[in-house]
Specification:
241 residues; alpha/beta; 6-stranded mixed beta sheet
Length: 241
């Protein structure tokens, strides 16, 4: 589904952010992209979406990410931003969810049927006609996920999806992520959430991949995490390693 082939990137010529990254993510995989601040996680996401251009090759479903393919690439990828206020720009949840399907040339009836199906799937029917500025942070995060799913992307990218949420809304978001059948790439410092939602983890440090494997194994490796300026998930702290 997604492949990076020897990808490097630098904002400044002599200060590389990513160094020779190569990895594959298969269709339907849930992958956590983790690392300390400055490891390069956000740059990976931006390169995948074509917001940045680096060296090497990036493929999405066999299509290379280039300026002339960005429209096709962005129909395959849905991106849930860390700050939902930067994503929800229409007055109501319904209008936000309708925006992409209508721009994909669906009829209004087809778009509304898709919106209703997504809202029902996420048990969010009560938010359909709510004003975005009048819903809670947790509701807005769920509405942002619903907006992306209304695009019917083949892969969903999420940047810190549980940040600033209370425990109740955090659990709702985690359960929603676990039920998705799309390919998922999630960047987060919330390693308990990554452990709950991802089968695989790619650990970045100083722009390089230092570990790539099962989340259930890597996220229990205290030495590996601490060596890369991270801590064990709270849920397994104190358990035998």
């Amino acid at each position: 589904m997604i492949e990076f082939q020897h990808v490097s990137f630098a904002y400044e010529k002599d200060r590389p952010v990513l160094r020779d990254l190569s990895f594959r993510i298969e269709k339907g995989e849930a992958v956590g992209l983790i690392g300390a601040n400055g490891a390069g996680k956000s740059s990976v996401m931006k390169l995948l979406l074509g917001l940045l251009q680096g060296e090497g090759k990036i493929l999405v479903d066999g299509v290379e990410v280039r300026k002339d393919t960005l429209a096709e690439i962005r129909r395959k990828l849905g991106f849930v931003l860390q700050n939902s206020d930067n994503q929800m720009f229409m007055p109501t949840v319904y209008e936000d969810m309708m925006f992409a399907p209508l721009n994909y040339m669906l009829t209004r009836e087809e778009a509304e049927a898709r919106v209703d199906a997504v809202l029902a799937r996420l048990h969010l029917e009560h938010l359909k006609h709510r004003y975005n500025h009048k819903i809670s942070g947790g509701e807005k995060r769920m509405a942002a996920i619903a907006t992306v799913l209304a695009m019917e992307p083949e892969a969903v990218l999420m940047d810190e999806p549980t940040s600033a949420l209370d425990p109740y809304n955090r659990r709702i978001v985690i359960n929603t992520i676990r039920e998705l059948d799309q390919t998922r790439i999630i960047t987060s410092h919330d390693l308990d959430m990554i452990l709950d939602t991802c089968d695989r983890v790619i650990l970045l440090s100083e722009g390089r991949i230092v570990a790539d494997g099962k989340a259930s194994v890597l996220l229990r490796d205290r030495e590996l995490l601490e060596r890369n300026r991270m801590e064990l998930p709270l849920s397994i702290m104190g358990r035998p390693e």
